[in-house]
Amino acid sequence: MKKFETVDDYILHTDKWKEELNILRELLLNTVLEEGVKWGAPIYMINKKNVVGIASFKNYVGLWFHQGALLANKENVLINAQEDKTKALRQWRFESKEELITQLNLIKEYVDEAISNQQNGLEVKIDRTPKPLILPNELVDAFVNDKELETAFKSLTLSKKREYGEYISTAKREATKLSRIEKIIPMIKNGIGLNDKYKK
Questions:
Q1: What sequence ranges are listed for the domain YdhG-like (predicted)?
Q2: Which domains does the chain show, CATH number per domain?
Q3: Region 148-174: what's the mean pLDDT?
């Protein structure tokens, strides 16, 4: 995914929803929010704190409230796009220009509430306590039979250990778990993380 330096660049290179993005952008620029780009997409902040973001997708244009869980959401328009992962972020999706335009006053109310919350220092407290590393039995058994593998695994970062543990645990069949272990043994011994190739 291309990383854009400016909001103009982001909108210019959007396949569709240009007009809708500009409508949302104009609404946001008529507030106290400062415009910027983070993670390659438009973001609107107060004192460098993320308040609202906008983004276009294949089937909709979205408005992101970074502390959306704190909004009253009386009209029930906000969704949690990643139910098990996201605590604070909420999204409002628009599938047509007409839908967006008819809701502009309501959008402004939600944005004003988000600004007020940020100005008052309200935010969802996220528990940063690291979860314990739980390794599947099959991987532990592999360590018993291969001490070099165990030593290499212990030298990996915690996040890489978690990735490998989840990769094996999520297999439903025992045979799949064992074939996954065979596949990752050379990677572990070479100090390579399961998802390293995607992080470059």
A1: 17-115
A2: 7-119 (3.90.1150.200), 137-198 (no CATH)
A3: 93
Residue 37 in 3-state DSSP?
strand
Q: Can you tell me the distance from the alpha carbon of 24 to that of 21, in angstroms, rounded to the nearest whole number?
A: 5
Alpha-carbon span 156 to 139, nearest angstrom: 15
Q: Which residues contact 67 (CB under 8 A, 6 or more apart)?
A: 51, 88, 114, 117, 118, 122, 123, 124
Buried b / exposed e across 145-162, counting CB within 10 Å, b at 16+?
eeeebbebbeebeeebbb
Where does the pLDDT of residue 105 fall: very low under 50, low under 70, confident under 90, or very high at 90 and above?
very high
Cα 194 from chain centre: 19
Amino acid at 128: R
For residues 65 and 68, give the distance between their C-alpha atoms in angstroms, rounded to a whole number. Answer: 5
Contacts of 14 (CB under 8 A, 6+ apart): 21, 56
Mean pLDDT of 40-50: 95
DSSP class of 199: -
Q: Which pLDDT does position 60 carry in this prediction?
A: 96
Return the DSSP state at 85.
Answer: T
Taking the C-alpha atoms of residue 185 and residue 142, their distance in angstroms, rounded to an integer, is 9
Phi, psi (degrees; rounded to nearest 5) at 58: -60, -45
CA distance 179 to 168: 9
Instruction: Name the packing angle between helices 158-169 and 174-189 (round to 10°).
Output: 160
Please identify which residue in the block is written with the tokens 């528990």. Answer: 127
